[in-house]
């Protein structure tokens, strides 16, 4: 918490290399309207679905890399 309360001039890390902002990078590839209501299902989408989506992408990338495919 102390890190977050420091003035910006004392902070060295940005969203690309600070561990506490990893989640910002993790969800950066989701389309802007991802959170909200799913147009196909009519169900609400939030953090739980966003995490599952990103993990699915990572799983697909690892699976393709293990098979010698370029992603």
The quaternary organization reads as: single chain
> How are the strands of the biggest sheet laid out side by side?
1-2
Main sheet?
2 strands, antiparallel
User: Which bin fits the share of residues in helices?
Assistant: 25-40%
What is Rg? 17 Å
Strand content: 5-15%
Helix/strand structural class = mainly alpha
Spatial gap, N to C terminus: 38 Å
- Mean pLDDT comes to 73
Q: What is the H/E order?
A: HEEH
The number of distinct helices, counting runs of at least 4 residues, comes to 2
Spatial shape: flat
Indicate the low-confidence ranges by residue numbers: none
Number of strands: 2
Region (Disordered): 1-23
Q: TL;DR?
A:
The protein has helices at residues 22-26, 47-66, and strands at 36-37, 44-45.
Describe the structure.
With 71 residues, the chain is mainly alpha-helical. The chain has a domain at 46-71. 35% of the residues lie in helices and 6% in strands. The protein has 2 helices and 2 strands. Strands 1-2 form a two-stranded antiparallel ribbon. A hairpin with a 6-residue loop joins β1 and β2. The model has no long low-confidence stretch (mean pLDDT 73).
Task: List the topology elements.
Elements: H1 22-26, E1 36-37, E2 44-45, H2 47-66
Antiparallel strand pairs: 1-2
Brief descriptors of the model:
mainly alpha, two-stranded antiparallel ribbon, 71 residues, 35% helix, single chain
């Amino acid at each position: 918490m102390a890190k977050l309360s420091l003035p910006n001039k004392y902070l060295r890390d940005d969203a690309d290399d600070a561990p506490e902002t990893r989640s910002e990078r993790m969800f950066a590839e989701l389309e802007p309207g991802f959170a909200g209501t799913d147009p196909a299902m009519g169900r609400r989408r939030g953090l739980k679905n966003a995490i599952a989506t990103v993990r699915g992408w990572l799983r697909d990338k690892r699976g393709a890399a293990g098979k010698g495919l370029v992603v």
